[in-house]
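W.,

You were right to be curious about this one. When I first looked at the sequence I had no strong expectations either way, so I just let the prediction run and decided to look at it fresh. Below is the sequence, 248 residues in total, followed by the output.
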Amino acid sequence: MGAHHLTGEATKALQGCDYLVAAQKADTDHLLALRRDIAEAHGVPLVAVADPPRDRDAAQYVDAVRDWHHARARVYEQVLRERGGIAGFAVWGDPSLYDSTIRILDQVGHRLPLRLEVFAGVSTPQLLAARHRIVLHEVGGSVLFTTARRLPQALRAAHAGRTSQPSIVVMLGDTSSLRELVLEQRAGGQPDQLGDWHIWWGANIGTTSEQLLRGRVGEVLEQVDQAAQQARSTAGWAMQAYLLRRPA
């Protein structure tokens, strides 16, 4: 996604900001560079703050993320206290879906006067569906949104018949867990059920490094890995999302 995916409402709000605040995760942060380009295109300065470290090896995932959010809130609070004015936070995609900026700013709002306005964005699943010219769910059906980390749980539930969920949108990760489950089924002599599912996949959707693939899982996983590497080589990063659908 880039500046051309900003809605008219978001563009107007951005132009009314005194500055944008963004977390810098590394010395070379390609997503920060994209945010900087968007800010400069609208004549708004960007204030980069060092992103607090996150414990990715913690036994309790939710607790580790909560601690990270608390640390981010303190950093954002410091910037807002020092600079004042109208600050903007550019969220990748839509702030309602797998993003915690709203939660973090709610924490900041408990410690200093803050009026928070949220503007809807164009989400990665929306772009994924548009690029592949598909609907994310079947007629009258439902769709599950989950993360790559939790995908094995969702697929094992489907395999065991504990859920009839036929369509799963996966974000925040790659296809490694899907590959492991396919190999697990094959090694156990089970029918290649996951290999028969259909996948609509994309990386860096809406950018110049965009990659797209679709097909049977068992037939295109190798190509997906190659395409993800191509996106990473071109842009320096690869943000992946995909839809899985069980065969009828």
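Here's what jumped out at me. The chain has eight helices and eight strands. And, maybe more interesting for your project: The chain has two domains: 3-110, 124-245.

Coffee later to discuss?

I.
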